[in-house]
Amino acid sequence: MIVLEKVNVRFHVRKAPDVYAVRDVSLHVRRGDFFGIVGTSGAGKSTLLRTINFLERPSSGRVIVADQDLGMLGPEALRRARLQIGMIFQHYNLLQSKTVFENIALPLKIAGVGEKETQQRVNELLELVELTSKKSAHPSHLSGGQKQRVGIARALANHPQVLLCDEPTSALDLETSSAILELLKTINAKLGITMVLISHEMRVIKKVCNRVAVMLDGAVVESGTVYEIFAEPKHPFTVDLVNRTQNLSLPDRLLKSQYGDLVKIHYRGEWAEEPVIAETLRRFPVTINILHGNIEYIGEAPIGTLVAGIQGEAAARESAREYLRQHVAKLETIHAQ
Amino acid sequence: MLNNIDLTVLLQDLSKAAVETAQMNGIGLALSLLLGVPLGLVLFLTGKGLLWENRVFAFGGNLLVNFLRSLPFVILLILMLPLASFLTGRSTGPFAASVPLAIAAVAFYARLVQVALAEVDRGVIEAALACGATHWHVIRHVLLPEAFPGLLRGFTVTAVSLIGYSAMAGIVGGGGVGFLAINYGYYRYETDVMIVTVIALVIVVQAIQSLGDWAANKKDHKVRD
Fold first, then answer.
1. Which residues, listed in sequence order, are joined to residue A162 by a DSSP beta bridge?
2. CA A109 – CA B58 distance, rounded (Å)
3. Sheet containing A330-335: which strands, arranged edge to edge?
4. Would you list which residues of chain B are within 8 Å, Cβ to Cβ, of chain A?
């Protein structure tokens, strides 16, 4: 659906070498994907997202959306292509001077849709985003979540094949953010629209995306399914991002005061559902003290992590660790006595 | 003090002057809308990072507007005499005076239009472009409606300034209420006449300002915090 080939975005800076906001990014987003791009602010995510509808023209490389090479299109054809690519923004970017209805009708007006059809389509969209009652309100009278719903309705007005989401929940509180993400997920699933979402939060990506690319300093350092990235992050930056999301850091005091072996147990898929710990305790004369734990479900698949102290005779501890190693996805020994 | 004859004469003079003022300012304001809005749009859109970004054009346009705005109006008035007589066929009267007035008003309003447009959130322009808007769509459906309250406020300021300028138009025989005040009050020491005309001007200006504010606020849906 979307193919990026060696996309570079270069900015000229006076009396300094050019700055690369995006460097050599190649990505492939399949039809129906909910594709996430994660990275810290300034990593070039936003610039990369803007190349997908050519709001930002790449300095080099190709951008192909729905089999159209955007770089080959003239202004009019590019305009037509953009009708197929909806976009929502962190700060909603609604017209303050227009009502909710008029805001959603704007892309239809631009596309030259007739009056009657516009009425009908806007009403449909209002229903989809559950804002029918706010039809005649101005954006200044809406909450952040409601504004983003208007943004979503506007982006969907011309039945796009792709929806670009630029930090759509970063200005919202947690609860509203969840509701908006649910709505985006529904749109992806029910309408089959291919989504590309950028965020600085792994939490957001984990909640809605099926595939993700991790960006650092303008380059994609790692990409894959969200499950793969969470289960086995490879790049140190990704490891750091995932760990921060799982919030598995232990206080130093606790680490120092532990006697026995300290291990980190990683579960994947069905392993997460087996009673491995209970089995270990039954088989070996050790005690296991769970210090920290977390099981997350990405889609349907669980990923679990436990930090535990193992106490007992040295040989028993060794066998317990060996048994665990064979029955879980990964066992890290943080320190052994 | 005013007697009956004087009062009749004064009323006649005042109504003649009012018509002249209305003519001069009407023409000036109409042209400021007709030419000031497009000029302001061009000044804005040729600016950095905008749709028609063009350094030469932006620099030239700004230079022209600054030049016209820095000239004292009296000097502009005299400088424009040849142009006025060429355009209107005469060098005195309200129509001749409306030429320099219009030039001053266009330059003044163009700058206020540019300022009002600069207040429009760039993100909104981007959102429109992202849904396939042409530049004309952006101007018609985003820039002008979003800047509308600002455009109205600027227009009110232009109208009020123009009435002030038009008093000076009397110097080249333009006539008008302001000139009446100068003539009677300043040259003929008829203070009471001057007071009447000044009061009339104050009322007109106050009315224009209130009307402008009312309309602008009615159209303004921005959140102010």
1. A85, A194
2. 31
3. A286-298, A301-312, A261-268, A330-335
4. 121, 123-124, 126-134, 137, 141-142, 145-146, 148-149, 219, 221-223
User: What are the structural domain ranges in chain B?
Assistant: 4-219
Give the span between the Cα atoms of B192 and B200, in whole angstroms.
12
Model confidence over B112-135: pLDDT tens digits? 999 999 999 999 999 999 999 999
Residue of chain A minimizing CA distance to B140: A110
- Cβ(A141)–Cβ(A64) below 8 Å: no
- Using CB atoms, pick whichever of A109, A111, A140 lies closest to residue B141: A109
Cβ within 8 Å, pair B131-A155? yes
How far is the alpha carbon of B152 from chain A, nearest alpha carbon, in Å? 14
Q: Please give the model's pTM, rounded to 2 decimal places.
A: 0.85
Superfamily in which the B4-219 domain is placed by CATH: MetI-like (1.10.3720.10)
Q: Give which of A154, A121, A158 is closest to A139, Cα–Cα.
A: A154
| Locus of tokens 């003649």 | B16
ipTM: 0.85
Of B121, B131, B149, the CB nearest to A82: B131
Q: What domains are defined for chain A? A: 2-244 (3.40.50.300), 252-335 (3.30.70.260)
